[in-house]
Specification:
- The complex is a heterodimer of chains A (648) and B (131).
- Chain A has 648 residues and is an alpha/beta fold.
- Chain A is built from 22 helices and 18 strands.
- Chain A has 4 domains: 67 residues, no CATH class; 174 residues, Thiamin diphosphate (ThDP)-binding fold, Pyr/PP domains (Rossmann fold, 3-Layer(aba) Sandwich); 176 residues, 3-Layer(aba) Sandwich (Rossmann fold), CATH 3.40.50; 194 residues, 3-Layer(aba) Sandwich (Rossmann fold), CATH 3.40.50.970.
- In chain A, the strands form 4 sheets. In chain A, strands 2-1-3-4-6-5 form a 6-stranded parallel β-sheet, sandwiched between helices. Chain A has a 5-stranded parallel β-sheet with strand order 8-7-9-12-13, sandwiched between helices. A 5-stranded parallel β-sheet of chain A has the order 14-15-16-18-17, sandwiched between helices.
- In chain A, helix 3 packs across helix 4, helix 3 packs parallel to helix 7 and helix 10 packs parallel to helix 13.
- Chain B is an all-alpha fold.
- Helices cover 53% and strands 0% of the residues of chain B.
- Chain B is built from 6 helices and no strands.
- In chain B, helix 2 packs across helix 5.
- The chains are: A alpha/beta (648), B mainly alpha (131).
């Protein structure tokens, strides 16, 4: 078989050489008919030599075929796949690309397309979005993403920034073509391929040899998974991938270093514990705190010990929604009462303790009391200076440098020790206040949810509660942010399992919602969990190809399109600016709406092999449609329900 | 520039049409104009002026704006807030939304607030049971 392929290949190359030579002769003949009317024999030989050399040059430009590697059975990219297997990477999401053909072939053939398994994508930003979802669901485990040099990586730029802002580990692999004489497509080559995303990756490298590539894959994995986590990028030379490797020179794969996350200083933690125990009204504001399934129960334990309010900030769901100490939706009240505020891995401390208004003029004010002790526990700070994802500067009374989740056992122990023998009256009274507030807020929310219940467009409250009803009894994971549906899931659903919400906002770059759901579904594949994706319509229009990936890989994702037929955030923004200028309302929808013609998302989904229903307009049709969709998802396949709904 | 002029023109026309219609049916002061008519007109204006964008079509509120119908402000307080809002709401000054239109919108909000909210919705009876 190999011999036959080799013969075909040699024949193909001979054919191209011959064609090129003939073309050159013909070209020379045509061009030189006037100037070289009577060539001599010497000139003829010279010309033939010249043509042969030119033809060799053309052949050199061709992708090297297997004929040049007859003796090799193991190539650079095979070795790289062995490293990826050694790192335990389960999946690689990618579009196909010729500059990593070596790696692609090694993954699918040499590696048997298992550990890592190739996840077929239709856009590089989908590939990265999938990896974000996977990392959010696993907490600490990265998957790999491959992107062709220049164009592929350029497509992924926004999604990589989303990953960076989310502080999630991803092993990004792109390519390079160092040797210009071996390039056959200069348009897809760059002197420094990584430069385009250097500000939004934690580390990058362009290895110069196979041993270097091996070391950088292992080093990159370690850097990506050490808090503060983030994506890392390697651009691997195409020639290096295709290099034959013999056993003699096969580079050693270094073992993975065991990384212990940094724990906060003992003395500082003791002092913090004392402050929390002595406080009249301690508040815990948790942001990028959770890495693993241990995080939520530990935070519950600390809050229950102290009887303290807990507020979930934007980036993670750290605390059960049904725990009465959860004061996320009364955060203003809690923060303004705090005399000790502990911020766990805050992405933006300023926003946690200050507020701002645009009317009547731009102004800011501090919510937290002047004498409140503000303590930050976390490892994150400004990782890069270009992108301003770190927010406005505000001083804390103390910043304990340590991973908040890794430090939590020590903090709990110190708090517990200090509470022994103490009168619990103060804690119980405080707890009662918080429980009352929780109940009152919930009562308000339930009343609000009932307004417009039977009206069309369907309210976001009804959309979310019909969905909650449809997935009752299932083992589900919410993959999407619930901001656009007015946070009804966070307000009224019970989200109490540490794995149950993998949502976060990233950098709010559009087009990653369904991709994230795919990554979450891959992470929960073994447990066969149903992934629930409340999908904004505008976001889906950025990357509709993700529907095909979900169908192709048969992933149990229930997508409910929150179809308000607009980029509604921008509708509000335009209205705001027009009003401030007293220019009326005529222009605010131009460029922001998606209603003329309205998009048929169900038809779009069906065209890519996803079961779908919609558009659902009548509120009473929603529940039955969702039940039918859940039936489909139970079989391990994706389903979509398009719901024409209120803007927020 | 042309666009702005055009828009101002349209706005002037809308205001003029409304003004003459008010001469025929002066709002509020004319008992012949029932509240439901005013509220119906207010509903159209509520949509046209984008109140629904943050407060929802039924005044139910959302993440970007509080509910309007659960505790409807008296007209004067409503007017003051709309003209000179606090926090994030954009101002609706007289040049954009005149008092007559604002009264109609208030009538709509008031009428919506009086609509009975369905009681005993099964899905809201025990929303914690999502498993």
């Amino acid at each position: 078989m190999d011999e036959q392929k080799t013969k075909v290949d040699k024949g193909r190359r001979r054919f191209i050489k011959g064609t090129a030579g003939t073309a050159l002769i013909a070209s020379a003949g045509a061009g030189g008919s006037g100037a070289d009317a009577s060539p001599g024999a010497a000139d003829e030989k010279k010309r033939a030599d010249s043509n042969r050399a030119a033809a060799e040059g053309v052949a050199e430009l061709l992708p090297p075929g297997p004929s040049s590697k007859l003796d090799a059975r193991y190539f650079g990219s095979d070795h790289m796949v062995d490293v990826i297997k050694h790192l335990g990477i389960e999946y690689v999401a990618s579009c196909p690309g010729d500059s990593f053909r070596g790696l692609q072939e090694s993954i699918t053939t040499y590696g048997g397309n298992i550990g890592p398994e190739w996840i077929s994508c239709t856009h590089e930003s989908i590939s990265v979005g999938i990896a974000i979802g996977y990392a959010r669901a696993t907490g600490t485990r990265p998957m790999a993403v491959m992107m062709k040099s220049t164009v592929g990586l350029q497509n992924a730029v926004m999604a990589i920034y989303n990953a960076f802002a989310d502080r999630v580990p991803i092993l990004l692999i792109s390519t390079a073509q160092h040797d210009g004489t071996k390039r056959y497509y200069w348009l897809h080559s760059a002197q420094d391929n990584n430069a385009v995303v250097r500000d939004s990756v934690k580390w990058d490298d362009t290895p110069g040899s196979l041993p270097h590539a091996v070391e950088s894959l292992v080093r990159g994995y370690e850097i990506a998974t050490t808090p503060p986590m983030g994506p890392v990028l390697l651009s691997v030379d195409t020639q290096l991938q295709e290099l034959p490797v013999t056993d003699v020179v096969r580079p050693t794969i270094p073992p993975l270093t065991s990384v212990r996350y940094p724990v906060g200083d003992n003395e500082a933690i003791r002092s913090l514990a004392q402050s929390l125990v002595d406080a009249e009204f301690p508040v815990i504001a948790a942001d990028r705190y959770t890495h693993s399934e241990r995080a939520m129960p530990m935070l519950v334990e600390l809050a229950e010990l102290l009887g303290s309010a807990v507020i979930d900030l934007n980036f993670r769901y750290n605390f059960p929604t049904d725990n009465r100490l959860n004061q996320t939706f009364d955060s203003f009240v809690s923060v303004s009462e705090a005399d000790v505020l502990l911020a766990l891995e805050p992405s933006d401390l300023w926003q946690a303790i200050n507020t701002w208004r645009t009317q009547p003029a731009w102004s800011t004010s501090r919510i937290v009391k002047r004498d409140c002790r503000v303590v930050v526990l976390g490892v994150d700070s400004a990782l890069r200076s270009n992108y301003q994802d770190f927010g406005r500067y505000t001083p804390a009374d103390e910043h304990i440098h340590g991973d908040a989740e890794a430090t939590m056992p020590l903090l709990i122990e110190e708090v517990r020790r200090r509470l022994e023998g103490r009168d619990r009256k103060k804690y119980l009274a405080r707890r009662q206040v918080l429980e009352n507030r929780y109940e009152a807020r919930r009562e308000r929310d339930l009343k609000q949810a009932a307004i417009g219940w039977d009206s069309s467009p369907i309210t976001t409250a009804r959309l979310c509660m019909e969905l909650a009803h449809a997935i009752r009894g299932e083992d589900w994971v919410l993959s999407s942010s619930n901001y656009t549906v007015s946070q009804w899931p966070q307000r009224l659903w019970t989200i109490d399992k540490p794995y149950q919400c993998a949502a976060s906002v990233g950098a709010s770059g559009l087009g990653d919602c369904l991709a994230r759901a795919i990554g979450v579904a891959l992470a929960h594949r073994k447990q066969k969990r149903m992934v629930v994706n409340i999908q904004p319509d505008g976001d889906l229009m950025f990357t509709p190809g993700a529907l095909w990936t979900a169908a192709h890989h048969e992933l149990p994702i229930l997508t409910v399109v929150h179809n308000n037929r607009a980029y509604h955030q921008e509708v509000m923004v335009m209205q705001n600016i027009a009003n401030q200028r007293d220019r009326g309302v005529e222009g605010e929808r131009i460029g922001c709406t998606l209603d003329n013609p309205p998009i048929d998302f169900a038809q779009m989904a069906r065209s890519m092999g996803v079961w779908a229903e919609g558009p659902i307009v009548a509120p009473d049709d929603l529940g039955p449609a969702l039940e039918r969709a859940v039936e489909v998802v139970r079989t391990g396949k994706p389903a979509l329900v398009d719901v024409v709904s209120e803007p927020r | 520039m042309i666009d702005i002029v055009c828009r101002r023109g349209i706005r002037s026309s809308v205001v003029a049409i409304w003004f003459f219609s008010c001469l025929a049916h002066p709002a509020q002061s004319d008992p012949r104009l029932s509240m439901s008519e005013s509220a119906r007109r207010g509903e159209e204006l509520y949509d046209r002026f984008g109140c629904y964008q943050c407060h929802g079509h039924f005044g139910q509120g959302g993440i970007n704006g509080p509910p309007l119908v659960s505790n409807v402000l008296p007209y004067e307080a409503f007017r003051t807030f709309v003209r000179e809002p606090r926090r994030q709401m954009p101002p609706y000054r007289d040049a954009v939304l005149d008092d007559g239109q604002l009264k109609a919108i208030h009538a709509y909000v008031q009428a919506s607030g009086k609509k009975p909210v369905r009681d005993g919705i099964p899905l809201l009876r025990d929303p914690g049971k999502t498993r």
